[in-house]
Each structure stands twice: as C-alpha cells, then as structure tokens.
Amino acid sequence: MHKGLLFDLDGVIVDTARYHYLAWKELAQELGIPFTREDNERLKGVSRNRSFEIILEIGNRQMEEAQKEYYCTRKNGIYLEYLQTLSEKDILPGVQEFLEAARAKGYRTALGSASKNAVFILEKLKLSESFDAVIDGNKVSKAKPDPEVFLNGAAALGLAGCDCIVFEDAAAGIKAAHAGGMRAVGIGKPEILSEADYVIKGFEKITIEEIEQEII
User: Fold this and answer.
1) What residues are annotated to the active site?
2) For residue 62, what are the CA distances in angstroms to 2, 16, 53, 144, 207?
3) What's phi and psi for 171, nearest 5 deg?
C-alpha cells in the first residue's frame, strides 16, 4: 500500500489543454508562425518558457530573452481570460469521487504541475480542500521529465518517493515519476503512455484499490 497520491493538473484533474492551445495559437499567429494541434502535443507537461521556445523552433525564429518573457506573459494573460469561465462542471469525470474516496481511506494528496496558475484553477474548480499540498510552476525550477515537482510534492506530504503514486497524462510526467522512484499511472492512450505502470482512460468507476492491485 502506498501513502501518497500525486496528481498532474491539465488533462488529469481538468481539461484546460484546449485553452492552452488556443492561447498559444493566438500568439503564434501574431508572430506569423504556423501552429497546429499536433504541434501542441509537444507542449504537454512542459513549462511556459520552454513551450514558447518550442514554438520559436517550429517557426525557425530567434528572440531576445526580454522578448521571450514579454510573449510568455502575454500568453498567460490570454489563457487567464479563457479560464474565467472555469467551474466545477469542468472537473474531469470521476476525479472528485476518486479523490474523496482515496482521502477517506487515509491517502494524502498533492498536486504536481508545471502550471503557474494551479492555485487559481483549483479555486475555480472548488477543489482546493482536496489537496494537502500544491507544488506548481512557481515552486520549481526544473521542468518534467526532471522529477523535482513530484519529489517536492512527496516531501510536502512528509513521504518518500517510493510511498507515492503519480497520475499523469504526458510521457514527460511518467518519466519524471519514475526518475523520482515513484509508480506512475497514465491517464489516456496506452500507446502514448507506454512507460506507465498502468494506464486508465479516466477516473470514472476506478478505485484506489484497483490501482494498487495493478501496480504491485
């Protein structure tokens, strides 16, 4: 039995990926850089600064650091405008029930996300009380697949990495979990998350007991 559960945010707790895509696309269009949904897949689980660097690479563009910072800030402003409409109805199916059931059984829970808006998003979803700790992009300096965000999450719960299970929808997040000595449950398609210890489509009708059984 594990003691802690660490959750990524986007694509695991809530689907804000479409808002990220729309915000990045708007910015890319402004810069005259073509940006598709396929390109957007490369940004999953990646920090805001690195995401913008990838977009510049797609457009074969160079930019000064001050300019990069300006556009990253602009992208976040566009994204936050989209997030104003976020509410409890945007929580992915089964997530709230899974969190409540796991916490009732004594599991400690933490959020581990590259997003710098994680606290704001949890407030909009009314899920702040469902997590004992929140480690977001404001508290880490290294992006996944570096395990920093999950190691800090485990430490915030007073646990070792081996005592925790990570829930992730991105390959980089799965690698980060394993690099931190943790078990990793993928949320999504098995072919994309082939390195995960177990893959589920989502949290509907999934119990923590089933997860524990599958990752032994």
Assistant:
1) 8, 10
2) 46, 28, 9, 24, 48
3) -60, -40
